[in-house]
Amino acid sequence: MAGRRDAGERPAGWEAGQRRYIGELLAADVLLIAVPMYNYSMPSTLKAWVDHVHVPGVTAGFAPGELPLRGRPVVLVSSRGAAYGPADNPADWDHGTAALEVVFGASMGMTPHRIVAQLTLAPDLEVLADRRDEAVASLEAAILRARELAIELG
User: Fold this and answer.
1) Which domain holds residue 76?
2) Rounded CA separation 25/20 (Å)
3) Where residue 123 sits, what CATH number does that domain have?
4) Residues paired with residue 111 on neighbouring β-strands, in sequence order
5) Rounded CA gap, 148 and 143, in Å?
6) Which of 110, 117, 130, 140 is most buried, with most CB under 10 Å away?
7) What Pfam family is a match, any one (predicted)?
């Protein structure tokens, strides 16, 4: 297949970039990640960064002693155009923040906090017009949660 890399071959500068990303992550007191929902998942650029910093034996592991980020807070701020809560049919369609909670929480030992603003498309889509008040309330709740976490994690 044209353009295919040989096993183990990486693009130029890949390892230096990975070392820099991991160094920045290890130096952070709190990790803040913006997670807009794109097609029910996280943006591809965020996924690429996660793939660089989630390294078994370096930042992730299987025994508690192997987790240099254990207990460190990670705040996942998510915006969603529609609603994905318990009362909505696609409540489990958010494959972005849920996946990041597994990666950073379960695998890397960090303490995840989630802030969500949903129905962000309600002001612009007639099909969501009856949920515009929910959209405003969701944004207000997200802002309030962000303020609380800023104080708590300060």
Assistant:
1) 24-153
2) 9
3) 3.40.50.360
4) 73
5) 9
6) 110
7) Flavodoxin_2
